[in-house]
Amino acid sequence: MSPDGVQALLARRMDRWTARRLAPDCHRISGGNPLLVRGLVEDQAGSPGADQAGSPGTDPTRIEPGSGYGDAVLACLYRCDPALPRVAGALAILAEASTPALVGELLSMPPDAVRRAVPVLNGTGVLDDGRFRHPAARAAVLGALSADERADLHARAAGLLHGHHAPVPVVARHLLDARPVGEDWVTPVLWEAAEHALDDGDVDLALRFLRLALRADVDERRRAVTTAMLARVEWRTNPSIAVRRTGALVTAVRAGHLTGRYALLPVTSMLWFGDDEAAGTVLRQLDRQASLPLQVIHAWLYPERAHTRPGIDVHLLDGEPWDESTLPFTVAAVVAAIADERLVDAERRCAALEAGAVARYPTWRALFAALRAEIALRRDDLVAAEAAANTALAVLPPRSWGVVVGLPLSVLVRVATATGRYEDAAGHLATPVPDALFRTPIGLLYRRARGGYQHATGRFRMAVEEFESIGRLMRRWRLDLPVIVPWRTDTARSLLRLGQDRAARELATEQLDLLPPEYAHLRATTLRTLAAASDLADRPALLRQAVHALEGGEDRAELAATLNELGWIHRSLGELGQARTILRRARERADRPEPADRREPVDSHEPVESHEPADRCGAAPAAEPAREPTTGPRPTPPGWRFAQMSGAERRVASLAARGYTNRQIAAKLFITVSTVEQHLTRVYRKLQVNGRTDLPLDRGGPDPLPDEPTAGEAS
Q: Quick one: residue 380, left, alpha or beta (phi over 0 = left, psi -120 to 50 = alpha)?
């Protein structure tokens, strides 16, 4: 029938308006075959909303073929030549790869017979130029075959297409639906098809190919490689799933069935989840040159087992493909750059990793987000740091992170502590972490975060113990570099709050001796800590050294904070002219508001316990002994009286002094405007000032940003 004939037939079963709208679609699907048109009409009548067909507001411009159309297709085939259903079945199996020659081979039928059958099928309206007019027609033909018939045809089609050098993914899809094909070419085809699927971003399809290869093959070496490929793909989506294959992979390595990069996969898994002893055992069995990157990672991530402290040669893997065996080393190079304060280099390397194909997979995407979070934190961008860390843990749940979970968790703890959200910080610290975390340098970051939280909540003795434990580990691991974790100044700040000036001074001096000149920011904060632990008359010289270290650099906020402290010291010494000049310079450097960050003012000599934050967290405040008086008068100008306030008060005062409104402060610190007003009222009383315009420009951020805990220690 012509399109007009189809429309006329439709008009007998529905109103003319609906018939006119449906006729083009109906003719395209049926080829004008009245039997197929009737089947489509049945499907339309039985579809949802059919009672309203043709009514105003509906738009039935498309037909969705259903069982009525499928039955009509089969009726057309089986009322004709018996060869037609067979040819149609072969065409349905071969799909786009079908040719008369291949159909003939598949059915053991002469090609001429196939060529005669195809025009007849075109004439029935089922086919159009040798292809099914609609996927529903192909599905109906396949559904008419028994499961055994389909499996047999797919197996024979896979063999035929492989013999004719058809694309590997086409052959592999037939293998998925075929009966077992016990031939040696099958597993390599499935391997290659899995790689194609990964290139296309179809992880599920890749896993189907590999799982079929593992089920169908009996050769031990090929099974070992398939297991390794499966573990690699599963690792990219969730390491906690892939780790279940580690035992089988280790067995295969010991049996000599796995070599090269696949032999490194179980080591990566062991290092990630903290089984460093077993990882070392496997590494000793591998070729030294091939396993060099993971040997370096093993020694770097678990320094307790390292005889020497390895450097990270970032060019070692130049030209090598990025996969699960080489990426850990590249990531380690990023971490090393972050620790060395080479943030531009770290960002560049992180961007290169994110631009690679592996970035589409959840595990690597989460890890890159964690690295971004640490970089942002080092840049004092607390908002970006928290967002990136939350993204990392949303993409990959904590249980799948292994020892690396310390990276995003430490950032979240430090940001929450820095913004006065102590309950949030405590919640992050309650997240279970593996004990092996504390055998890694990542554990140092987590301990520092925890120590900073303890300091901020008034538990200074606990903070000192935490920071000193970091120092003991760093010495034992021969990693005692302040640029990694400045545990000495962290400890010194807590000691100052306990009134132990001499011990704080010794630690700050020791750290200063360890710092090369290029680490300007760290030298400046160390000098500020040393100044806070020194007599008033000695402070200006130390703070001038800090200013000198920062001048010419990009750290304007730290320079402004240091100048501000220096100005108030001169004022307290009665040197008002110098004080005014220096404080003016401080105001000029602080010409733009910045978030409260890790450049907090160094604690003064007054050992005041901050009970309010501790109570807010539900933790009992530590009872500290009274400070013994020191010799000589020590005036406390307003800048130094910041230490008499709670952490929350100091943060509010700092932002208010730099021009933030109460509403802006509330939004930045995640508190209410009313709470801001209450904090400011107490601040004015403690600093003995009349209002915010009298507040000293002091970097009133949180106390030191901490490092990391263990599952049992977090409480």
A: left
